[in-house]
Amino acid sequence: MEQRKGRRLILFPLPLQGHINPMLELANILYFKGFSITIIHTNFNSLNPSTHPHFTFHSISENLSESEAAEKDLLLLLSHLNAKCCLPFRKCLATLVSDVSKEPVACLISDPVFDFTQSVAESLKIPRILLRTGGASFTAVLSAFPILQEKGYFPKQDSRLEEPVTEFLPLRVKDLPMINSSDPKRFFKLVHDLTYETKASYGFIFNTFEDLEQHALAKIRKELHIPIFAIGPFHKCVPVTTSTSSLISQDQSCISWLNTQPSKSVIYVSFGSIAAINEAQFLEIAWALANTKQRFLWVVRPGLVQGSEWLEPLPSGFLESLNGMGHIVKWAPQKEVLAHQAVGVFWTHNGWNSTLESICEGVPMICFPFSADQMVNARYVSDVWKIGLQLELGIQRGEIERAIRRLMMEKQGEEMRERLSKLKDKVNLCLRQGGSSYQSLNGLVNHILSLES
Length: 453
Ligand code: UDP
Known about the structure:
Elements: E1 8-12, H1 17-32, E2 36-42, E3 56-60, H2 66-69, H3 74-97, E4 105-110, H4 117-123, E5 128-132, H5 136-143, H6 145-150, H7 185-195, E6 204-206, H8 210-223, E7 228-230, H9 253-259, E8 266-270, H10 279-292, E9 295-299, H11 318-321, E10 326-329, H12 334-339, E11 343-348, H13 352-361, E12 365-367, H14 374-384, E13 388-390, H15 397-409, H16 411-431, H17 436-450
Parallel strand pairs: 1-2, 1-4, 2-3, 4-5, 5-6, 6-7, 8-9, 8-11, 9-10, 11-12, 12-13
């Protein structure tokens, strides 16, 4: 723990699991660097202050209606949040910066998806730095959206999905970022917010490291003339803490079950906090897992299967037929699971956090991206870093079984583990004194201390 700096940082996470986790990890890192931390959070998916007693929490009442809070169209939900959070956030931030009983506020660190934070910060004369919760490669693709649109890649045409995107090889048209919504314009507005509106910020913080995304980081630095800090992987930066920012309680039975399984024998399956599948896909996954006769730990989040509460679509007797080879939970302590010696493969949707967590533990991936940045991440995993296999044909039990076999039992899996082991060494090096993330973090601290609000 470094000496206290006499400066307060205000962090404002987007209330989605994949955005909350890295923001709170970043808060921990900056706390250890000597800053006082205040977190502003929404009532929607509100945080539990007792999990981080060393931070100060302030909740804002954005008052989403019940139907708005239950909105399944992610972009519409984000648009409700943007519309309703602006005023209460402004009020809360104004109170915090004028509180002379506390250390002066050095800056606001916010999520670029909250589009109003720039104008609010500007009006209160608070510098704003952005945490980009996605990878740098994805961010580089977003920056090129106007060109990609001009070249006719959007709307994506079914007949062109397998074509290469020559500007971003090895991406294919199907890999370009997209979030489906009842109004396609919402996605392009979000991209606009994430690119143009962010240029006015005092810098970007990335949860990545130079050796992984050097080219993309160089591209972003060349295009945007703002400081870029690649200080990840966040969760490996600070001394291990037991604090969790999980919105759903983590089922610890995973770990006791894993403790009884042989080394590298288990396929861990999880598609993160948002992705949803239909009943037919759910059953296809279930049969593929059962047919391979490999051990598996499967996170079936309530809401994962559209129209079902939880496991009801499984045929009766399915669980018993597994003879203890499978364990299903609603939510897992994922980082602990991936670090467990029994886990051999991660079947993932390639959210950026999951991808990075898998890399840090040296676990090869079966990639099944759904939306947003996941397709870009998955292509990098399979075709650039070559540490995973992508299910190119959707969810089909034959292809799934083949992928599992190749990763668990064949040479290809071994080769991936070797590449991952080298990447893991690079993670350790970048965080050590003199390493790229270590230095970039010191650069960030100095940058924050140099800001005059
Ligand atoms: N996670 C978890 N338990 C689970 C599934 C996921 O703790 O059962 C965590 C995971 O470790 C990661 C986050 O939830 O930090 C998911 O973020 P990601 O970017 O991978 O995907 P998203 O949920 O945003 O689609």
